[in-house]
Amino acid sequence: MRVALVGATGLVGSTMLQLLEERNFPVSELLPVASERSVGGNLTWKGKAHKILSADEAISLKPTLALFSAGGGTSLQLAPRFASAGCKVIDNSSAWRMHEDKKLVIPEVNGHVLSADDFIIANPNCSTIQMLVVLQPLHQKYGLKRIVVSTYQSVTGTGQKAVTELMHQRSGRLETNVYPYPIDLNVIPHIDSFTENGYTREEMKMMQETQKIMGDKTIAVSATTVRVPVMGGHSESVNAEFHNDFDEQELRTLLVETKGIIVQDKPSENSYPMPLYATGKDEVFVGRIRRDYTQPNTLNCWIVADNLRKGAATNAIQIAEYMLQNALL
User: Fold this and answer.
1) I need a surface site. Which of 39, 166, 287, 294 has the fewest CB within 10 A?
2) DSSP H helical segments within 49-125, as ranges?
3) What confidence tens digit (pLDDT) does each residue in 54-92 have?
4) Around Cβ 117, how many Cβ atoms within 10 Å?
5) Which residue is catalytic, options 50, 126, 139, 301?
C-alpha cells in the first residue's frame, strides 16, 4: 500500500509519521509530500531516508491512501487531484468538513457512515473530536439536548511557529508574530477569525461539526474557545444537558467501559485529567464528573486529549484503519 503524506514536515505530519510506525499501519511505500522548499530533501522514517516529493510526483505514483495535513487551501487544490487518481484522501484541515457530500468522521462515533465510494473524508476539528468521543455513549443512552463548552487550547494547535513564539516569549523575547498578543503568562479568548455573530470560526466549527457528526441538528452547542500557554494538549470544560435523566454511577460505568476513554476522577486524591499527562497518549481523558444541580438532566465534566494525536493524527489514521478493516480501502 502506497501512502502519501501531504504536509509531512509539519507538527501533525510528523505525528502521523510516528503513529504509522507505532500502529504498524501496512505501508509498503511512503510518499512524503511537502512544500516546494522541502522537495528533494530527505525525511527519515523507520530508520530509512525517504525523498520528499512534490504533489505531482506523488500523484503520478498512484498512492492508495493520502493523509493530508497541509492547510485548507492546499487540501482544496490537491485532494480532488489525488482522488481523481483513485486515491482515498483523509484530510485534517477544515476545507471539506461541512461539504454536504463529504463525510466528517470520528471512527468510534460515526464510522458506520463511511462507504467504498468516499474518496475525500474529513477529519473533524481537534476540540470537537475529544468532546464527542466522551459525549457519544452518553448521547446514545440519555439523548443530548444542549452543550456549553469552554476550551483551553494548546499552542501546538496553531503550529510550530506558535510553539517557537511561546518559548521565545518565555525567554524574554516579546515578539508577537503568530497571535495578536503575547501568549506566555496570558490566555487569549480568540481562536481563528471572528464572524459577524460575534463567535469565532473555531466556535462555530464546534457547533456545526457536532450536529453533522451526531446526525442531529437539534443539538444546541454554545462554545467559547481560548488559547492557553500549554504545549501538551487541549482541555475542555463541558456542560451537557440531556433529554433524559441519568444515574451518576451508571453514567460513570458507561464511560469507564467505553474504548478510547480513560476516566480520571478521584477528587479526594487530586486525580483529574491534565494536558501535561495526556501528551503522547491516544485516549481521551475525562474527570471532574458531577451533576449540575442548577437544572435537570445536566452534567459537568472536564475533558483532555493530546490535540496532535487523537485530535488530529490518531483520528485520521483510525479512519484509515476502519476503512481497511471494513474493505473500504
Assistant:
1) 294
2) 55-60, 72-84, 107-110
3) 999 999 999 999 999 999 999 999 999 999 999 999 999
4) 7
5) 126
Are the C-beta atoms of residues 208 and 199 closer than 8 Å to each other?
no
Strand (E) or helix (H) holding 210: helix 201-214
Q: Is the pTM of this model over 0.90?
A: yes
> Measured between alpha carbons, how far is 12 from 116 in angstroms, rounded to an integer?
26
Q: Which three cell numbers stand for residue 202?
A: 473555531
Contacts with 268 (C-beta within 8 Å, 6 or more apart), sequence order: none
Residue 288: all three cell numbers together: 471532574
Domains of the chain: 2-124+312-325 (3.40.50.720), 127-307 (3.30.360.10)
pLDDT tens digits, one per residue of 134-159: 999 999 999 999 999 999 999 999 99
Per-residue CA distances from 29 to 32, 62, 222, 281, 328 (Å): 10, 11, 44, 26, 19
Q: What distance in Å separates the CA atoms of residue 317 and residue 130, rounded to the nearest whole number?
A: 15
Quick check: is 126 catalytic? yes
Place of cell 505530519: 13
User: Closest by alpha carbon to 66, among 36, 90, 38?
Assistant: 90
Does 168 participate in catalysis according to the annotation? no
Q: Of residues 50, 87, 139, 234, which has the active-site annotation?
A: 234
